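Exercise 7. Given the components listed, write out the predicted structure of the assembled complex. Treat all entries as one system.
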Amino acid sequence: MAMDAALLEMMSWVVVYCFASSSMTLLNKAAIKAFTFPYFLCVLQNLATLFFLAIVVAIAPKDHKIFGLRVGSGFNIKMFKQWTPAVLLFTLMLVSSMSAMRTMSVTSVLVIRALTPLVTLLVEMRVLSTPQAHPEPVVPRNPAHAAAPPPPFARAAITTSLKIWLSLLTILGGSVCYVLAEVEGDLVGYVWLGVRRGPKTSPTRAAAAGTVPPSLFLARPRPLESPAAFAGEPDRRGVVSRVRQVHHWRDEPEHDGHGAVQQRHVDPAPRRAWPPPRQVSTATPEPPPPPRPSTPHSAAPPLHATRRVSWSRDTGERLGRGLFCLEGGDGTRRSSDALARRICEADAAERLTPSSSPRVACAVSRTCPRASSTWTVLRGCGWGCRCSWAA
Amino acid sequence: MDGLAWLWVGMSMFVGGMISFSGFGLQAVVSATSATVVNQINKVASFVGAHLIFHDELTPLMIVGTVITMLGTAWYSGERLMERKAKQAAAPAPAKVDEETPLKK
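Answer.
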């Protein structure tokens, strides 16, 4: 019977801890989305912890094997100084985790958080020195050194084995794999934007020549599309890239590295045909397609600059996987299912699977041949960055 | 904030206050190995729950990365656990104090 009671107690603690630990992350995510003040949310959680502590202190006896509270009587300034950095760092950890939850997915936070042991180990090996008692007294050979006091601190031996390093590298590899998948669209988008800076790095030319600019390999090796895809032939998935037949491109201003693409004051005047004339000059230029029925978006003023924006459900607008938003230079943002369908009716319509991913990972700039403006198309990028659109 | 938001915040506060005490309780009744296993299970449960509740986007590459990360984390935890056990085994046993044992003369 006693055995059963012990087993029951153990199972109870396991179940309670599993519930608390598993739901903590999920509830934090839900709470920070509903209550977008991470600092105040941390304060509320800590107040709840204090409330629980008061209950435990009131209920549990002082000599309880788990919750027996021992309050030190020697609290002084030294103790305060000793513990303050730890408390501040712990608070920073809580708030940063909550802030990350606000903009990232739970999976991303968990995967990146798994890198903590690696970072800790590196910092520990590099920085941290811990007091270590010398097990054996050192007898100096030189008597003159006998009076010298021993060093107060000696760097503690960091116990790492090859297996530990390998396990940490496995975590790192998995995290890199995950992050690569998550920012796939960004990388590809940046590569394409980089390639589109000038004719020398035009993707069409590179693909036609059978070579790939080195920048592509630097960013992410990915096979370029065949020129046939630009000529309106069915691509590998059998989808006709109709929009690419009338795509134009032009030089765009610099964008800043890994950050958000900043395109300011894009002059709509200079235009060059894309694909290059070598592929389309022999064919008769297509007449402009007939105008479509008037839509709310067609009546909007042309937008002459684009910039990438972070767009998530937290901002109030609905933009999930497969849904698109556009932002123009005048600050106009457009996001709707109808617009998404309109954008992707060319060759990406089959990937429009509405979901609720809060991330926006892809930025692709296209030049609209009809509206004479440049739009930035943002979308979740779970399928890679293949966004064509029809104006 | 609507009622649902307050519900999430309230549950977050409740779980936040409960997790530390339940952690102490767990560590008191199970071994370190079991606690490590429970933590791993919790991580998997969080992944699954995030995907089911928040519809987190998971491409095949993301799943592969997540699985590799989880395996690496489990491996690291196991190695640290074995290292701790080896240290405990190598440490000299504390001298037994038995005041009732008569001294040999």
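Discussion: The helical segments of chain B are 3-29, 32-54, 60-90. Residues 97-105 of chain B have pLDDT under 50 and may be disordered.
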